[in-house]
Design a protein that fits this description.
13 strands
Length: 362
């Protein structure tokens, strides 16, 4: 399958399959984006000043804005084009009753539960207002971008992060100590509801190869592909993580084919060993957090090396171009994905060409 915005997609998807299998290939999986002076095709520009609600909920605006962006972007190396269907980071909470507040840059989720002992996770509701918008966005995206780009999953989010949106973070931290049995009860229900929504969306966006995309980290794989996370883990100890997070991540991984965990912030590093113990977790993506060195800085090399030794792939996201080669020479290419950028198409192609020569320095 060739794509208008990625003519060599047939070759690139084979490299993704190799990366998931942690097999050797020619260089790392390298994602490089660069602006194009001349668009691939001429498409209409989106309206210049959308409201926050239009930015997230107007299907026509979302499609036009994405088409224009893709037409003006060069997808070099293993980068590929996709239509993002997100309704914010953690939209499962919306479908479970959280009232959203839309901002130009993100979405905030209002609290639902005042008392965790009486809280109930509602059943799957295909008629829920925002779910109908999200699935219609996916359907129209599949039609509009057929032969041009792929269509991604929304960033539903699971685990304690979703429960924190519904309950409130501070309140949930107290509940972990005061009402652990109810936290577990709701965690089990959230996991099931997550898959109710995931499965329904997968039926819409699965591509001709049986593959799926999770857009935020530019990942694609044959079968059920997903990013996992628990950003709240920064606030809890390893024993609490092992009790309230790890079992649910393990169950989630059992029901998916391609999984990557979003490890976010230096206070979450203490859970890396536990994450590496999850047999069916395929990869780790590292986000250092505000005020920290970028993801390609040498101070993070040991983190990547530990994950690789545990048999996990790694994704270094947002690595400056001049830091890519030192990173690869430190951690190797097998199971390694790096996301970076270039200023021009020519610079992007040269970076990809050079990456084929880089090898781990012993």
């Amino acid at each position: 399958m060739s794509l208008l915005y990625k003519p060599d997609w047939d070759q690139v998807k084979q490299r993704y399959m190799t990366w998931w299998a942690r097999e050797e290939m020619d260089g790392p999986l390298l994602i490089v984006h660069a602006p194009l002076e001349k668009p691939v095709v001429h498409v209409p520009a989106p309206k210049p000043d959308p409201t926050p609600e239009e930015r997230w909920l107007d299907v026509e605006y979302r499609i036009i804005a994405t088409d224009w962006q893709l037409a003006h972007t060069y997808h070099a190396g293993d980068a590929f084009p996709w239509f993002d269907t997100n309704l914010g980071p953690g939209s499962l909470a919306i479908h479970l009753g959280s009232p959203p507040t839309f901002d130009h840059n993100t979405v905030w989720y209002g609290r639902v539960f005042d008392d965790i002992t009486t809280a109930q996770i509602p059943p799957y509701n295909p008629e829920e207002k925002y779910w109908k918008i999200n699935t219609e966005m996916a359907r129209q995206g599949m039609e509009h971008f057929k032969g041009k780009a792929l269509v991604s999953f929304p960033d539903l989010i699971e685990n304690l992060d979703t429960l924190a949106s519904l309950r409130g973070t501070l309140e949930l931290l107290t509940d972990l100590v005061d009402h652990p049995e109810h936290v577990h009860r709701l965690q089990k229900d959230i996991l099931e509801r997550y898959f109710d929504y995931y499965d329904a969306f997968e039926q819409i966006i699965r591509d001709e190869d049986g593959g799926t995309v999770f857009s935020a980290f530019n990942i694609w794989g044959i079968g059920r592909t997903c990013k996992l996370q628990c950003d709240m883990s920064c606030m809890i100890s390893p024993p609490l993580f092992n009790e309230f997070v790890l079992p649910y991540l393990e169950r989630q991984c059992e029901r998916l084919d391609n999984t990557i965990y979003h490890l976010d912030g230096v206070d979450a590093i203490k859970h890396l060993d536990a994450l590496c113990s999850i047999q069916k977790l395929n990869a780790i993506q590292w986000t250092p957090g505000a005020g920290q060195p970028h993801a390609g800085d040498p101070c993070w090399y040991p983190l990547y090396q530990k994950a690789l030794r545990a048999g996990k792939g790694v994704l270094a996201l947002g690595v400056p171009p001049d830091s890519v080669q030192p990173l690869i020479e430190a951690i190797g290419t097998r199971g390694v994905m790096v996301s970076t950028w270039a200023n021009t198409r020519e610079e992007a192609d040269e970076l990809v060409r050079q990456s084929k020569k880089w090898r781990k320095q012993n």
